[in-house]
Amino acid sequence: MKLPKNKKKVLDRLQKAVERVRQFAYAQPAEEPPGRPRIGVALGGGFARGIAHLGVLRVLQQEKIPVDFLAGTSAGSMLAIAYASGHTIPEITRQAKNTRFRDFGNWKLSWMGLASNQRLEHYPRKYLGVSTFEELKIPLAIAASDLGTGEAVYFRRGPLGPALRASCAYPGMFVPVEIEGRMLVDGFLAAPVPVNALRVMGADIVIAVFLEAASGRKPSSIVDVISLSFAILQRHADLEWRRDADIIIEPVVKDFLWDDFEKTPELMAAGEAAARAALPNIRLAIEARQNPEPTIESLPQRSRIKK
Question: Is 150 left (phi over 0), alpha (psi -120 to 50) or beta?
Fold first, then answer.
């Protein structure tokens, strides 16, 4: 039986449509382009000098260089919490400019230190609206040093307050912080710039930000004596973190004092200048990860070098 011409056209169209659906359903999926490298930023300590970290982070943000992981030591941990909490750079800047010693410490002479930093325990909740690592928008590791073993201790989950206190417990100035039976002090002793934590977290590229302490000036307080003494030790130490970092950014902040919070604009400018100088190397590192040079093993069979 012959079908009318119009019905035949309809059947032909249906058959072609079914064939296209089959081709779509059984086709091999297109190979996805390689993902971008995951970038981690490690922020070192430095009291008020840590505000320079904000300048670095602002440049990365402006240049659309993503930050997938953060790690911080001492002042770096405080700035890392602020950034990972989702607050804007202007908001964090205003808070940094208004920060004073009384916001995180109080002079309380004891056999273990000149002051207590217990007030820091409430800092994340009071000023940033976060209390735990799990509330942060960017994965974060906070570094402290174990006085008993000399090892670095990293916090990545649970309450932020105790971890921040331990990371900022500058030896001689602040009393150590006891957590789970371990006496912990400032992370700069064991992890001056915590790049190793970022590798463990999964970073492909690690940007380390180091803040050199003041040198060559006459101390004017016991805090200066302690700070300058540790700065000397740091300069002569075997700084393993330098070998493990892909990019090192070093803002020129050594002439700023430990409590120069009111000089926030100048500190941020120093961080921005250093970050912009490092941008070509950062982009090269990203490009190298996205488009690696072919090796003999990765070349097609016909292109391999014959012996």
Answer: left
The alpha-carbon radius of gyration of the chain (Å, integer) is 26
Distance CA 44, CA 78 (A): 10
Q: What is the largest CA-CA distance in the chain?
A: 109
Global pTM value: 0.79
Please say if 244 is a catalytic residue.
no
Select which of 68, 74, 167, 204 is catalytic.
Answer: 74
Per-residue model confidence as pLDDT tens digits over 216-246? 666 666 666 766 666 666 665 657 888 999 9
Q: Which residues contact 180 (CB under 8 A, 6 or more apart)?
A: none
Nearest to residue 185, comparing CAs of 172, 202, 204?
172
Within the chain, residue ranges assigned H as helices are 5-26, 52-62, 75-84, 89-98, 101-104, 123, 160-167, 195-201, 222-236, 240-244, 264-290
DSSP character at residue 105? -
Catalytic site includes residue 131: no
User: Which residue matches tokens 């940007």?
Assistant: 207
pLDDT tens digits along 89-106: 999 998 888 777 666 767
What is the rounded end-to-end Cα distance, in angstroms, of the chain? 71
Tokens of 14: 């249906």
Residue in 68, 145, 146, 186 annotated catalytic: 186
